Queue: 2 jobs
Job 1
Amino acid sequence: MPPFRTYVYIDGFNLYYGQVKGTPYKWLNLDALCRAYLDTAKNDILKIKYFTALVKPRPHDQDQSVRQQSFLRALSTIPNIEIIYGHFLSHVVSMPLANGSGYVNVIKTEEKKSDVNIAVHMLHDAYKKHV
């Protein structure tokens, strides 16, 4: 039986905040990671679709976007990776203090469109019989 035509869909923010942040492992070769997790005798990994949004630097971390751009440039050197962009929405919200003694205004940043992009790409790729 020939291997399955396989596309991998990665939510970049879930990967970062769920597995990478707070660790020394910032530079991932996503192709090697996928090949380590999937049986390559059964899966022909044709494409890895990486979904993210460009971060906007915060006052306390002006280099955040520089680091992300460096990572995305490194990812783009892997031939079977496609980067798909969503976007961020930032707004001020009032949140309670942990000790319950009032509220403070904070900047809430939400990454938007990646979940929708992943679903649309999965449906489109299946419909077009890419996988």
Job 2
Amino acid sequence: MFPAGFLGVENQLWIWLIAMVRPGAAMLAAPIFAARATPIQLRLILGLAIGMAAMNSVVFEMPEGGIASFNGFALVIGEVLAGLAMGFALQIGYAAAFVAGEAIANAMGLGFASMVDPQSGQSTQVVGQFLSIIATFILLVMDGHLLLINYVVQSYQALPPGGPMLSNDAIYGLVMFGGALLGAGVTVALPVAFALIMIQLVMGMLARSAPSLNLFAVGMPMALITGLILLAMTAPIMGQGIGDALRQGLDQAQTIAEGR
């Protein structure tokens, strides 16, 4: 039994816990927030702060039977899906940099060179890592992390806790947007990758005309040097393409937040 002054404490704690679910799920899938370098304590504090502010804008009542009931379980599932969908939409736009990096690195002959990605903790190619750093800077410059938090707060109006879940159209739109990831990555890598493919064709013609030529001694340094020069020349264009992919991810997250 709680004392008379603490009768509402348990209910308030449950409300705070529910308030953390949607922002926490969004941070679990979104870039920067989901990085291993981001402390879990920071995610919990941000999730609670964002959730408390958002819950004050809607009328919420605990389901009958509490969280352990069927209605409570459905409530938590709906909150998790809404948060993951918004965070994952931005992550798809962010992943275009990795797709472009993979294409460029393979054309440059750097497919064997890899390093640890701080976002996922997995091994990724160096060019993809370079473009992911550029994508992180662009996302911070365009206030993408703040826009995502804003969309999470706005989503409580169209998708209140305990209300309707994500519609089939919203899920279908997210799936179709995921299919556009490959196209966005190829668009970013096109200026460099196309030039490197042309160099590979020239090296192939030289190999046919001079069979004694050691392509490993000539072709690989040529592709590597040309790739580095092209990366420096086309960095503004690739940065613009990565920014466009991030904006598309934010637009998709806004569409989900509006319940469309």
